[in-house]
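Review box. Two proteins, two foldings.
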Amino acid sequence: MKIINKILEKSAEPWYSWVVFIMTVCESIFLFIPPEVFITPAIVSDKKRAVPVTVAASLGSLVGGAIAYLIGYLVFDTVGVWLIEHVASMDKFVLTQELFNKYGVLIIILTAVTPIPYKLLAICAGFLAYPMWIFLAVSAIFRTGRFAIIGFLLWRFQKQANNLVKKYSLQLTIGAIILACLGICIFMLI
């Protein structure tokens, strides 16, 4: 209980928005912890932090998404070609690229609002050379929308959320990680 109180105390500080920004950048590139884990403590501890934390998460998500996209785009000539030659075929790659070009916006929306790991989509979008501006625009709208809804709900029900976090913090964290793992499984099946 002491650690939860310490986290809630520290997350009420103005500098915590930078923590949310940095952690959301990391989440969008390589970290498999949902952004809500970083957003929740600040808003639960002080509902006035809802807007700055939501903005920090949204901006961090976009910066991280752009970096992950570039990673996918830049490794295509080395890792990508090798993967296509040894795991699939160029015909399957072209088919995948056509499907992504046709349904890319829908795939981005689905990934932006569900536990499917955003980083995998961002890397794949770059790998498949999906237009970056479309990827970032759709991501901006729907990732920001997701964070805004969560921020609003935490703001609106701050007192109840504070009690839940203090009482079930371990279970909520484990649940968030399980959701992220399920998202990975769903992404692999698509």
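Next protein.
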Amino acid sequence: MRTERTNEGSRKKIDVKSAGADIFYDIAGSILYAAGIYTFAGNAGFAPGGVSGLALLLNYLTGFPVGTMTLFFNIPLIVISYKTVGKQLLMKSAKTMVISSLFLDVVFPFTPMYEGDRMMAVVYSGICLGAGMALFYVRGSSSGGIDFLTLTIKKKKPHLSIGVITLLIDLAVIFLGWPVFGDVDAVLYGVASTGICTVVIDKIMYGFGAGTLAVIVTGKGKQISERISETVRRGTTSIPAAGGYTGRKKDVLLCACTKAEAYLIRSAVEEADQEAFLMFTETSEVFGEGFKIK
């Protein structure tokens, strides 16, 4: 009985902690997201891709609040994608959308808009939007819009690439900036901002945990493993193998390391076996002892 109560109490603590983290990330992400839209893109005469870009265009034409219009456009997308996306993601994303809309329409109108160089506005708009969206994604949430539509189209047309679908929708919104702002540069700046946003998302989501995987094919697996351990204090995993042509027994060693350690591992391999076959491949993230723990 006591064990059950203890488990229930632990679950409640975990749920409260997780909910608190969700709110914190939503607020931090919304501040960055709103800065990207309102502070930098709002006065620079271009629209980034997605639903927020479409809302910004309508704000320019009609004066309707960007956050409110973003929510308005997301409602039909939520209805369309409900079965595809699932209840949990929709609930989390709805919370994120409401918080980000509040920052866009209630908080940031009291802050100054950037009025400097247009290209700098493009750069920082992309950085802020990318950082904000990455914080949403980290907690399994989303800013809605294109994410929902993309997943729905992908389900109905599985042969299409998610990247291609997203790119086409973003470009359609960005090209609308040409007639709205009356400036072809609005398209170029919109493309640049969206590109920067994508790079920032990738770097935050994957770059910080990125590493290198060394793949070593050798007949001296034990010697190389010991030499790597002595040089960089990294462990290796040995997989028995055989040459496809010669039939000779070989060892395939796998060693996860940082990029800075790759050269030291190469030197260790060459010292132990000059005939070893060595490959380095980049990994998006590495988890475990000595690396980032999930």
